[in-house]
From TrEMBL:
A GO biological-process term: nucleoside metabolic process
Pfam families: PNP_UDP_1
Alphabetical list of Gene3D superfamilies matching this protein: Nucleoside phosphorylase domain
InterPro entries in alphabetical order: Nucleoside_phosphorylase_d, Nucleoside_phosphorylase_sf
GO molecular function, one term: catalytic activity
Keywords (A to Z) from UniProt: Membrane, Transmembrane, Transmembrane helix
Spans traversing the lipid bilayer: 6-26
Domain Nucleoside phosphorylase, residue spans: 53-306
Protein's UniProt name: Bark storage protein A
Organism lineage string: Eukaryota, Viridiplantae, Streptophyta, Embryophyta, Tracheophyta
Amino acid sequence: MGCQRPIWGVDLEVLLVLGMVLLALVQKSMQLSRSHPMRGVVDKVNDGGGPYVGLVMAYPTEEMALQDSGFFLPNSDIPSIQLAGRRFNIGSINGVDVIYVMTGEQTANAALTVQALLDAFDIQGIVHYGTAGSTNDSLSFGDVSVMNYVAFTSSWKWKEFKSEKGQLPTLTFGAFNFPEKGENLLAKIEFTPVQLYSTGKPMEEMYWLPVDPNWFTIAAQLQNLTLQQCVNDTYCLPETPKVVYGLKGSTADIFLDNAAYRKYLFQQFNVSTVDEESAAIVLTCLTNGVPCIVFRGVSDLAGGNGTLSLASLSSLASINALTVAVEFISLITRESSVVDQ
C-alpha cells in the first residue's frame, strides 16, 4: 500500500476551511434575525458598501449641525432604514461610507442604539461627537475635547452613616453643608467601577474606559484644526475655540447644573467635560471589540452662567465637534490607505 495522508489531517483542514467560510457568512449577515422584515434591506446595504464608519450623536441640535453642513451625502438607493425606533442614515462623507444615527439622550438610549448599529451593519468603528458641559476652567465655550478616558460617575454605592472609607473616591455630603461643614445623615457615596464583558475575555471591572488607542493617536493630528468662533453675524467668542487633546470625561444620567459638584469632579477625578452618553458608547464598543473615539464640544459651564443662550452655544459646540469628527473620518481613511499599500 502507498503512503496515505491521515484522515484526521484532511478532516481538520476541511473543518478549518468550513469554519472560516461560516465565520465570514456570519460576519456578512451580522446578527439581524432572518425573520426581521428589514433583513433584506440591511443585507443590501452591507453588500453595496462598507465597511462603514458609524457616526453617532445624541441630540437634535447635534444632528442638525450635520444636516446643515452638507458633509453628509445620502445614498441614492437606500438613504435610511428604520430599526429599533431609530433612523439609520446611509451615505458618505468625503467619499467615506458612513452610517449615522441619533441615539437620544442618556446612557441606556446610547448603548441600545450603538448595539443595534453594530448588530445590523458592517461597521469598522464608531465616531461619537456632541456637546458637553465643562468642569475645567481652562476650557472655553466652543472648545472640543478629544478625550482619552471616560467614566460612569453616577455608578456608586450609597454608604452607611459613619461607614469606613472604600477603595475608590467618596463624596461626603457633610463636606458641602452650608454655611459650615458637618455631619449629614445622607452620609456619603462611594464611586464604583463598571463590569466589562467582551468576547473571549473574562469579565473585567473598570472605572476608566479608554477610547481606541490607535484612533486616539491618529486624532493627535487634529490639534491645530481651525474651529468656528462666531455664533452669528453679531457675536463672536472672545477667543478662537481650540481642539484640546487627552482629557478625561464624565458620563452620568444627570444634567449637571451645580458648581460645587462640578468643582468636586474636576478636583477628585480630573474630568474636564460632563455628558450623558459617552461612557455608554465607549463601553458598548469595548464589549464588541470595535474602535471608538469621542469628540465633545463645550456648550456650557456645568453649574455656571454663560454669556449667551444655551441654544446658541449648543449650536456652536455641535458644529465644532462635528468639524473635528469629519476631519478625523478623513484621517483614518488616509491612514488605512497607507497601511494597505
